[in-house]
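Late entry, evening session. Most of the bench is empty. Finally got around to the prediction I had been postponing all week. Sequence below, unchanged from the version circulated by S.P.
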Amino acid sequence: MESEVSLYDRIGGAETISSLLDSFYAKVLADSELAHYFKNSPMDKLLKMQKEFFSAATGGPLTYSGKPLRDVHRHMAISKREFARFTEHLIETLKEIGVEEQASYEIISHVNLYADEITNDVY
């Protein structure tokens, strides 16, 4: 029986995830609507956690070792709109680095599973 190739391997593994995060965070940090959330963030630690998150999310070898996402984002009051903007940058970056459309949908779908843990705006 053949085993299914993981999403991690289909997108190009660690190299693609590193490229994705570098380009993605350049966009996010240049976005006046989102940049303030990262003003005091240690970017090296953030990128390490994101590499783990995206690796785990795509079936790669790394396990996410950070705090629960709800705990990390609780004090930030991130709106659904801001989360959507963050996701728009992710979609754009996936396209730019050549991740196939189906794989991009799978990645976005996984990220969206955490929307309620990351957002906490009050309407």
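Two things to note before I forget:
Residues 25 and 89 are 9 Å apart (CA to CA).
The domain at 7-118 is CATH 1.10.490.10 (Globin-like).
Will write this up properly tomorrow.
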